[in-house]
Specification:
8 helices; 131 residues; mainly alpha
Length: 131
């Protein structure tokens, strides 16, 4: 499944330009879960542990690629990521399916930790110019 198909499957939120961006560009932008400074094996491991949220990370990486470098933009990108985590959880583990609450709680904890890590450690990556 390609990147946009994953995001459409969950009906994730993204800026309009994300949906217009060529798949080849998204493939270059997406590096998995974790910052650029992390070694590939570290991002691969983190991406495996957070695999359910791949679509949210694709959009988050795109947000970082088009970063406006403002604190408000940084907060907005992270909140969109958290919102997309919740959208994914609501689709995969709806609240009405109480027999899956333990799995939802497990993934919610991972989502919350990923969000907090981005909030605490991601601002330098937000400001980083790759050009």
């Amino acid at each position: 499944m390609n990147f946009k198909a994953i995001c459409r499957h969950y009906n994730l939120t993204a800026v309009k330009s994300f949906w217009l961006c060529p798949i080849t560009d998204l493939e270059e932008i997406y590096n998995g879960a974790g910052p650029d400074w992390m070694p590939n094996w570290g991002r691969e491991t983190l991406s495996f542990f957070l695999r359910r949220f791949k679509g949210a990370f694709i959009i988050h990486d795109y947000d970082f690629a088009i970063a406006d470098k403002t604190p408000e933009g940084f907060k907005k990108a992270n909140k969109r990521m958290l919102k997309n985590f919740i959208i994914i959880l609501n689709k995969d583990f709806p609240m009405r399916d109480f027999w899956h609450w333990h799995r939802r709680a497990y993934w919610w904890l991972k989502a919350r930790l990923a969000y907090r890590a981005c909030q605490k450690l991601g601002y330098s990556a937000w400001l980083d110019d790759k050009e």
